Amino acid sequence: MNLNKIIIYSLLLLTYLGLSKSLSPSEFGISYVFNEESLSSMIKGAPVSVILVDTHSTGFIIKTYYQKYKVVYGFQTYEEIIVRTSRAFTQKNKDFIGMSIFRRSEDLNESFTPLPPGSVFIGNRDFGRWRNTNKGKVWTFYRAYRYIPQYTGLKGYNATYNVYQQIQKSIRDDKPFFGFNDEFGTKGSITRREFPAYFKKDRNDQFDLKDYFSDIVKRNFRASRGAQ
Amino acid sequence: MNEIFDKLLIRFLFTVFICLGLLFYKYAHVLFYPSQKKQILKKIYPSENYVDTLHVFSRLIGIALIFSTLEFNEYIGFVRSVLDFFILGTSGIVLYLVSLYIMDNIVFYNFEYKDEVLKKKNASYGIVSFSQSICMAFLVRNIFQESEHSLIILFILWLFALVLFGFSTKLFAYVSKLSFNSLMIQKNIGLAFSYSGFLFGNALIIMAAFHHEHHDIVSYCIQVVLKTLLGALIFPVFRAGVIQVFQIQEGPTEGKSTDTPHLGYGIYEGSVFLMVGLLTSIIIGQIHFGTIYPFF
């Protein structure tokens, strides 16, 4: 093949890729989270808890991964953000849906250990207090911060002092904590209740040939029979 | 019964309006080719000069193609729909004729209508002119559909399409072994077929590039440019594939000169350009990836 043609074709290819990258609407307004550090630099303010609420991948051969976060701030309303992530980061967090995967406390301490959502607010005397009950000490938010359990998905969950201690231990050991009865995480009962959107989607990627052909038969023959 | 007569009358009135559009073209022809004023205004004898017949009637087919996209919706009010029809119809014809004038100056910049059609009866010129008129008509028709009755968007898209199509015609030298100017002078029919296929292929790709949803004009135009570039990338792949699969030998057969290419070569090139244009339009216009947003 003529060398000139190869050069022209390569230039065209590069122009296409360059223009697509810089002009395509799908590239606008979406941040890329490569790892924990890039997540930390993207999230501003403190105290803040970043809850992973959904994950999705597009593409057939070369996949693009997306995650949706609910960012719950201490002194303002929450926001939801969608980011593009690396494959490794998505794989790493696949079991932590409905959990806080990043938090920053008021004294700007950061932690990436997967924990129950809103863990950063539990035990923080600015947001609530320990109340003695028959189950032991249970964390209660002040009236001014009563929205935090709703935003984080902790509504109806009794965060006992034992839970608080386990959270602190998990942060020190950098080991995920799913709750004493595995209430949190992708398989958790509270996650299923509080973040139902993730479970509503059909995540079964398996293609069934039998279903496919039966659907064709249904659409083409049964409908016309019904019309008769 | 009154209602039926009324509807029939309206249809007849619109038939007359479309005929007036054709009359408009007749005088527009005089404007574009002033030296041939007498020729178009006198009676036409199709059997006298078939090249001229091809030239004139290709434009009439083009006007008919543009009119075929217009709609008359009586339920929005008779006067309003008449005005809509009139304004859009007139702008369609005007844009089409201006496009033809510009394209004539781009494609046939070395040739004169008077010399090639009326004096030399150059069939090659006639065929290329025919293809060009039909391609422009399809493009203007497509833009009409995409502009959704907005005259400003129609004008912007028309300019944009004209630039793309005009630029694409200049790429013939890169994809064909045939020399346009020298073979056109020789009245080579092979060149006419090859160039016609090339024009139709280009028009199909540009039409496919324009066919997508638009929310704002800037992102729409960006998508059109990207799709056109993608077309330029896919086109040679399909062409190479066809040549490879059917083991087509593009060079001359032994003992034959390459100075005057055989009609068969022109037909081959034209057919491949048209087929590859169609296949490329599938790749750039009919593969949908959806969006991630409904999932979230």
Could you give the topology of this structure?
The complex is a heterodimer of chains A (228) and B (296).
Chain A: H1 3-23, E1 31-33, H2 36-42, E2 48-58, E3 64-73, E4 79-85, H3 87-92, E5 100-104, E6 110-111, E7 128-133, E8 136-141, H4 147-152, H5 161-173, H6 189-194, H7 196-200, H8 209-227
Chain B: H1 2-32, H2 37-41, H3 50-67, H4 78-107, H5 113-119, H6 123-147, H7 151-169, H8 172-175, H9 180-185, H10 189-210, H11 217-245, H12 263-285
Helix pairs in contact in B: 1-3, 1-4, 3-4, 3-6, 4-6, 4-7, 6-7, 6-10, 7-10, 10-11, 10-12, 11-12
Could you please describe the fold and organization of this structure?
The complex is a heterodimer of chains A (228) and B (296). By secondary structure, chain A is of the alpha+beta class. Chain A is 36% helix and 22% strand. Chain A has 8 helices and 8 strands; from the N terminus they run H-E-H-E-E-E-H-E-E-E-E-H-H-H-H-H. Chain A has helices at residues 3-23, 36-42, 87-92, 147-152, 161-173, 189-194, 196-200, 209-227, and strands spanning 31-33, 48-58, 64-73, 79-85, 100-104, 110-111, 128-133, 136-141. Chain A is globular and about 80 Å long. Chain B has 296 residues and is mainly α. Chain B folds into 2 domains: 1-148, no CATH class; 171-289. Chain B contains 12 helices and no strands. The mean pLDDT of chain B is 86.
Provide a brief overview of the structure.
With 228 residues, chain A is of the alpha+beta class.
Key traits:
heterodimer, A: 228 residues, alpha+beta, two-stranded antiparallel sheet, 8 helices, B: 296 residues, mainly alpha, 2 domains
